[in-house]
Amino acid sequence: MRTGGDKGERECMGFSAETIERVRRASDLVEVAGAVVQLKRVGTNFRGLSPFKKEKTPSFYVHPDKQFFKCFSTGSGGDVFRFLMMTEGLDFPAAVRRLAERAGVHLEEEAGGVGGGDGGSGAERERLRQIHASLALHWRDLLAKDSCAEGARAYLQEREIPLEWIARFGLGYTPAAWTATLDWGKANGFTEEEMIASGVALRAQSGRVYDRFRNRLMFPILDEGGRVIAFSGRVLAGAAPEEPKYVNSPETVIFKKGRVLFGFDRARRAMAEEGRAIVCEGQLDVLRAQAAGFLEAVAPLGTGFTEEHAKLIGRFAKQIVICLDADVAGDRAAGRLGGVLLEGGQGWGGVAKAELGVKVVRLPAGDDPDSLIRRGGAEAFREKLDAAVDFLDFYVDWQSKQEGDTPAGRRRVVEAVAKLLGMVESAVSRAGLVARAASRLGLGENLVMDEVEKARGSAAKIAVRSERLEPPGIQLAKPLEIHPVLKELFLLVLGQPGKFPEVERRVDELWLKNLGGEELYVKIRDSYRNDMWTGLGDLLPQLLPEEQDFLTGLEAGVWERSEEEDWDKALEGLGGRLEGDYLRREAERLSAKLRAMGAADPSAVEVLRQQGELLKRRARLTAGASKANA
């Protein structure tokens, strides 16, 4: 997971450096982290258990004066944006928005957004969010208090939905009248066109405008930032037989169905902890599962499961458990879902591996997760989850059932399975899966492998990444590899940031080449020259995650000398060591060049001269250092 690189990269996300800085300065990391971790003051800092991994001894520190955190158990560190991104699984724009809302900082919204919307001006998007937020509260109040919602309340009581979870999911009710919601909108300052643009109203061919949702139990759909961006309405008793079970909001500039999962805002933390996502078919299934303790449950919104959904889950979990209704339609949906997951391997990387990362729950006939949990409790559902079958086994059996036991049917089954396995890029994983499928089909491995290779040949343009996926949940940055002397230099810089001009005077940037931290040094230099840095807190928003980890680790044990001459002397010594190491590397490079050139090469004389100059310079440097230490 990337925090967002330099200033330019963050600006291209839709926020200027000034906006980001306003949000950062308005956000207290102690308060933000304290909402997730129980912090205790230790001296001038705060300490608690790591939010990134399970531990018994606290290793997580927050430094309030410099507004950064450091987790010694994982090596991670950074600013308030990075903390929110790691603990909540947000991307950078979503973290900025969440913190801005928390701190009351107004943002000029850019096009695009957390909910997967596209286009639209900032004002338009904000107006639609206002409609959704206000309407969610209005519908919730109707469900709780109004006599028109008696049928909806009776339905929830009959389905034994706990009041606590009705409140947690913000369930509401829409009246049966054709223009009840439209009339509410007009009374609250929203125009007809705005209500239509938000998706809660429709215009008939006759020109008449009416409500999209009528006499339905309403489920608010939230984005990653926790804001209402759409609705899903479930049919209630008394509806016409042709009425669909669920009606969802249409796509708008703030909502794209294929990029949002119902319940995801509450489920992502549990996904990271459990290492899996439970994909259900309906919203009530998700509510029931989460209320029973299976907080990792989510559901798609009418479009089926998409590659974007797979990528979304892949940020937190390494396995998906498909849990759909126990009927023909449910089996068909499960088959499609597994195929999408594998085809989406290009975006998710770890799906197409030895176990495919996909399992299928087989529910009793006539059951869905809601009814199973109501009848048998959480334990009955857990037993089914534990007994989930690997998707490959399910897929082979499902295809065999669909095609029938005829020569033509068996051929189609093998072709379908071969197409599926052909998407697995790793030859080792593919071979293991072929053996498993062949055994399931009762065929020879060579025969199945031949079909798989044919499928791969005909789909050569399908590229499925096979690299090993990082562990699910908290995504950790790869540690920086930096030369020990350069590491000491960074330590000095952090100890006395106001004296960076002295570092520039003593250290030639050429000396830092190939030491592993030259890019970080340049960022510090540019930040200082642009008057953007007086210490680590100002620098962190411009850094990559691995750079944040490195510098926060140094800052936690920063060199703080009270005597100026000690710092100056240390800088002089480090400068000499960096220069000496550079001269040694250059001399070795020239020696290698001479060996490759041969004595007859006319340019060898010039290389010899350069080498001689380097050796003299190095000798003077060594003599000066000896004299200074005498």
Question: What would your notes on this structure say?
Answer:
With 630 residues, the chain is of the alpha+beta class. The protein folds into four domains: 97 residues, Zinc finger, CHC2-typedomain (DNA Primase, Chain A, Alpha-Beta Complex); 135 residues, DNA primase DNAg catalytic core, N-terminal domain, CATH 3.90.980.10; 195 residues, Dna Topoisomerase Vi A Subunit, Chain: A, domain 2 (3-Layer(aba) Sandwich); 146 residues. Helix content is 52%, strand content 9%. It has 27 helices and 16 strands. A five-stranded antiparallel β-sheet has the order 1-2-3-4-5. Strands 13-12-14-15-16 form a five-stranded mixed β-sheet. α14 crosses α17 and α17 packs antiparallel against α18. The protein is globular, with a radius of gyration of 31 Å. The N terminus is likely disordered.
Task: Write a compact overview of the structure shown.
The protein is of the alpha+beta class and 630 residues long. It has four domains: 7-103, Alpha-Beta Complex (DNA Primase, Chain A), CATH 3.90.580.10; 122-256, DNA primase, catalytic core, N-terminal domain (DNA primase DNAg catalytic core, N-terminal domain), CATH 3.90.980.10; 264-458, Dna Topoisomerase Vi A Subunit, Chain: A, domain 2 (3-Layer(aba) Sandwich); 484-629. It has 27 helices and 16 strands.
Percent of residues in β-strands: 5-15%
Could you tell me the CATH topology label of the largest domain.
Dna Topoisomerase Vi A Subunit, Chain: A, domain 2
The second-level CATH architecture of the largest domain is 3-Layer(aba) Sandwich
Average pLDDT figure: 79
Cα-to-Cα separation, first versus last residue = 51 Å
- Kindly give the count of domains: 4
Helical percent range? 40-55%
For the biggest sheet, the summary is:
5 strands, antiparallel
Low-confidence stretches: 1-12, 110-115, 342-356, 460-474, 558-564
